[in-house]
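As a warm-up, study this chain.
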Amino acid sequence: MTAAASLTSGGRRYRIVDLRHAAGADLGRLPTIHRILLENVLRNAGEDAPRAAAAILAWLGTGWSGEEIPFLPGRVLMHDTTCGPALVDIAGMRSALAEAGGDPRRLNPVLPVDVSADHSLAVDVFGTPDAMRRNMERELGRNAERYRFMKWATKALSGVRVHPPGTGIMHTLNLERLATVVGTAERDGVAWAMPDTLIGTDSHTPMINGIGVLAWGVGGLEAESVCFGMPVMMRVPDVVGVRLTGCLRPGVLATDLALTVTERLRRIDLADRFVEFFGPGVATLSAGDRAVVANMAPEFGGNSGYFPIDAQTLRYLRGTGRAEAQVQLVEDYARRQGLWFDPAATPRYTETVEFDLGDVEVSLAGPSRPQDRIPASATVAALAPMLPARPAAAAAGEPGDGAVAIAAITSCTNTSDPRLLVAAGLLARKARRLGLKPPAWVKTSLAPGSPTAERILRRAGLLEDLEAVGFGIVGYGCTTCIGNSGPLTPAIERAMARILPVAILSGNRNFPGRVHPQLEAGFLASPPLVVAFALAGDVNRDILADPIGRSAAGAEIRLADLWSTGAEIDAALAAAVDPADYAAAYEKAEASEDWARLDVPEATLFPWDEASTYVRRPPFAAFGAGTRLGAYRAHPLNVLGDDITTDHISPAGQIPADSEAAEHLVARGEDRRDLNVFAARRGNWQVMLRGLFTNRSVRNLLAPGIAPGSTIHAGSGEALPLWRTAERYERDGEAVVIVAGERYGMGSSRDWAAKGAALLGVRAVLALGFERIHRSNLIGMGVLPLRLARHPAELGLVPGDRLAIAADPDRLAPRAAVAVTLHRAAGGTEALPATAAVETTLEIEILRAGGIIPLILRRFTAAAD
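Now compare it with the structure written out below.
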């Protein structure tokens, strides 16, 4: 421990790490992110603290470092479809430990773990007053077994708290209720104060960066290791500073800013880099604005989207009902430690980006990637490349190409900022008064991030207006944003064979098939624009200028007739917000009678049921067979192009009735008409294995004409599902690898994308580039990520080609060259330069152990001995 100091706040005295003493004159030159990391290593790294602190300060010399530092967050945040697999792993590890003669009760998290049940709610019912009740009933009926398992974990494991269905989305819950910004803890009888820090098993965890909390998303496997006391090992990170100047123009909303930031920053290589916002423009943004931008960090490719603590942070904490003593502690601590934001400061950054807020316009992103921002007026041109040369004409009153199939106000991204919901409500009010309604083919829904939203909208008198134009509350959860959009309207279903419909949502991702497996095109938009496009019924117009409907009197109505000024929005919001709502809404939701009625086994070891189709003991939650490293020749099992997301690899949405996964479930008694979603089945490895790479837009370049999720078996020439081919290769003692292009594994941080690769027997993934969390998850499963210098499309791989990889476990090092040789089936060889996409020595240790789970089990066994 370095020199400590005292801080008095609210009449109470705290011990703190003395950052000003530790960094001296260099403190103001460090990015705020590095100041927080410096405090963390000084407080937690023990004997290694002086070296780690020196590495952080030495970073100032070049803005880059290869030195590793440990980071130990204060807490862990999960949601139900990432905690489910993680808890299944932990239950499996407990069983493995007991079978090895160990004490399974010792396997307990050492950090607080909060779990939000938010990813399972589907929009089965919409547009009726009882939609939320009926959707909740369906959710609990489908997922009761999973929820019982999660509730078992709260009794069997210490420090695990589950927030039941109805409490909202994890990131909104964190923002409005869990985050302290400055935390306190007792250590040896002394009260300490420190920055609130966390990691989350969802890529949008950085949303909390909007109020000054340093957090980022990790894979479920890395979270498991942190839960059991292993630090996050990381290079002293690169930090890209985004200097904000000016202010947003009238009519421009936080969503428009977030989409524009995403477009700009995706042009920069942000892999394994952090982003911090600074400059005078920051002060013009509310905490709500900042949280919307920070939420999009995975979309712009960074680990974070950090905004330092300032008066806007304090205003938000007071506005959400935090105790005044806590708010005062945040200010006192931040000012004392040099963490208080100075708009005039210019810290040292790895790279700096200039961004004028005045340049932002009303925007959308799409039709297939969140970084593809367009002016809101440009949907016709954006969709044109996806349409046939001569689109079929639609009959009167029927949907045609560009019809809006889904219009959803959804996701923590834009429903956590009450200003955006109020803006949508005001547009709905004006539309209602003019007699506008969406066409019958549009499926509309409103799924706010927390139950507080209902109170705000009702007090503002806007909830009835939203309901009148189809946007009644369908529940509190991720819903459409995560792919739980439910069935399409009958009109769209009838027309699907002849038209290209689109989704309009206020979410953060629009990858083909993500929102709904039948929808290839989607646009991200602010909540009021979602309502506007729903009213228009299609995207075949300039939404900013063209008519979107007619009044009851027959007059043309344009967006300008419906759009509210900033003053109107702020006035309605001021009248609607009550800080007391936040605690009251959450306490009511936490007191769920349905959750209380769930009966659970009280046992140290989970009683596995071989007949279960939701919770099965996974084969990888064991001591393992050893490392996948070494020298070997492997068949390319799957050869893929660019932008293969974790949605493509391991789907989250509805399980298709005619799929391999469906056949497996139906054979075990499940109803083919209601198989639930893949995300709900993540506790059953056999279902998830059969869903790998089955997204309709995935093409295996080994034979592009075969069905998604299939490959060619080199020995027989047969086209078979990936998992069946992998079984054959394993039976014959032959290795397999995956080959891919740029940005492999972008999107959600689902660890099943890596677990699936491991279950297929994949020893390495060779790609032009990896997204950070998926790269980490692959390592967590013992699978070596290798960066190629050549695109797989250039290689022209065919069945029978093999890749010889020399990855000696004793010689592998971070970012080391690895020899790869392509052996052509037709004869001849080619050397393929490759680099290990490994960043730390801890990652090397994990690969040598065969994955995180075997490493954890061996450490617990060694400690017991």
